Amino acid sequence: MVKSFKKYISYICLALLPLALYAQGGVSTFGVPFDFPLVLSGNFGELRSNHFHSGVDFKTQGAVGKPIRCVADGYICRASVQPGGYGNALYVMHDNGYMTVYGHLERFPKNIAERVRKYQYDNETFRADLRFAPGEYKVRRGDVFAFAGNSGYSFGPHLHFEVRDSSGEELYDPMRFYATRLNDTIAPRASSFAVYPRAGKGVLACGHESKVYKVVEGMVKDTIMAWGQVGFGVKALDYMNGTNNKYGVRRIELYADDSLLFSSTMDNFSFAETRLINAWVDYGRYINDGEWFQRLHVLENNTLRAIDASVSDGWLNVDEERYYNIECRLSDYHGNTTVYRMSVLGKKDDIRNDSSHTHELYCFKENQIDYMGMRLFVPNGELFANARLNVRIEEGSSVSPRYSLGGEEYPVWHGADLQIKVDDAKGVDTSKLYIRRVTKKGGHSVGGKFRDGWVEANITILGTYEVAADTVAPRLKPVNENVWEKNGRVVIAMSDRETSVSSFKGTLNGSFVLFKYSSKNGRLTLDLKEENIRRGVHQLKVVAVDAHGNEAVYEKEIKY
């Protein structure tokens, strides 16, 4: 595994930071956020799309509005409102050196709510992100200062709770403070293991492709025949008492003939590392099949600190015709452990390079492909592993051909530049052109701008792309308008077929009025009572604009 010296030193410093913070308060630093027993619906480091879960999710007994207590002395340093993500969130800087985050709130305390509302009306926007000085909103341990909810990208009432360092960039597992308050005697369990022959250096009896082996009665009964270097992956989940929720596995160890080959411990990470999840998991299986397999070997450019694979980066070198005894141990924060065993039989075989590809990309070089009206530039360090692509051209949209960048999906860390040529733009408004990623489920926009005959965009997956035109305005559709007057709430469904809605604005009698927006269900909601709208007849107008300037307008006279 390759790491720069500078990055290595910074990771060491960040890893030592918790020890300094412990010295200030120890594991008793924090109180509890609720007055009822704590139960988790999600744990730290769970595998999510393009990121690790950055905190824990506390259940709120299935209800919104539960009072939240501040866990330590400090001050509220930030309040944010988003249509997705954390929804309504508060950030507290504590005297002990930590920062805590409270997400998916139903509402803020009154003084913060008034400040946020003023910002929203002054700037005529729903989104808000306010920062506060240390002396403005002080809080004490045990104070009720917020109320749990279901705002943002949340699909059931709960509190998303994070523990960070003072910079807000380094995240720690809150279980170090709350493990003793949770009942857990159930060990993690694996359902399958995957075996991966290393490209050009290893082979399975079944060929050069990876293979999945099911766990039966606590072990892999099939003998795995291999030669050269092979790696392993595991599909596993953790469990807790008294709940049906499933969690990520905190610690994984892999042994070969009783020697540690690989280990991982998910205790802390930084936001700068979170997209490294795509290097740790089998990304192709996740994208294509929705299955999470964690690699028990290290790709060339995976610098995630949670992983330790000092022996050959976790790859098993099968160079003798004998049985290799493999053991995988899965453990949770409470020490509950399950052990799985399997055997690899060394069977001498011819290791050949797969030559069916047309292009090779390297993770530690700049990569450029210029292929029949398509240009791809992948900067040095952006791939997690060397990639072999078979670039193909297929029939695409009415604007451009479709380009398939490889036989499987390759993730990119921060981004690569893709350009597709538009030969005949006659009759097409070039301001409406964008690049669309084509998937099994249809496709979606990755953005893009037209310039000098090319449409260009930054992409994070080497997949299949084409140019399309967005000439369709967003859709604004009233929801149950017959009960608006009775309920005192105006609800409008907002969506965009081609790209996304970039802005929206609601007015009542020509003046801005605050519509709340939830991205999880595409609903705009105006609470007439909350916004102090007087009784009577009002002229409602909502305008939505998408990423390419297409505008939709909804107007109606409403009674309240």
- Quick one: how many beta strands? 44
The dominant shape is: globular
Write the CATH homologous superfamily of the largest domain: Glucose Permease (Domain IIA)
* Rg measurement, Å: 27 Å
Q: How many independent structural domains?
A: 4
As a percent range, the share of helical residues equals under 10%
Structural class: mainly beta
CATH topology of the largest domain: Glucose Permease (Domain IIA)
The first-level CATH class name of the largest domain:
Mainly Beta
CATH architecture of the largest domain: Distorted Sandwich
Uncertain parts: 1-27
* Major beta sheet summary: 12 strands, antiparallel
Work out the strand percent: 35-45%
Kindly report the average pLDDT value. Answer: 92
Number of helices: 6
First-residue to last-residue Cα separation: 65 Å
Characterization of this structure:
- The protein is mainly β.
- It has four domains: 5-181, Glucose Permease (Domain IIA) (Distorted Sandwich), CATH 2.70.70.10; 189-346, no CATH class; 359-469, Chondroitinase Ac, Chain A, domain 3; 475-559, Immunoglobulins (Immunoglobulin-like), CATH 2.60.40.10.
- It is 10% helix and 44% strand.
- Strands 1, 4, 5, 6, 7, 8, 9, 10, 11, 12, 13 and 19 form a twelve-stranded antiparallel sheet that branches. Strands 14, 15, 16, 17, 18, 20, 21, 22, 23 and 24 form a ten-stranded mixed sheet that branches.
- It is globular and about 85 Å long.
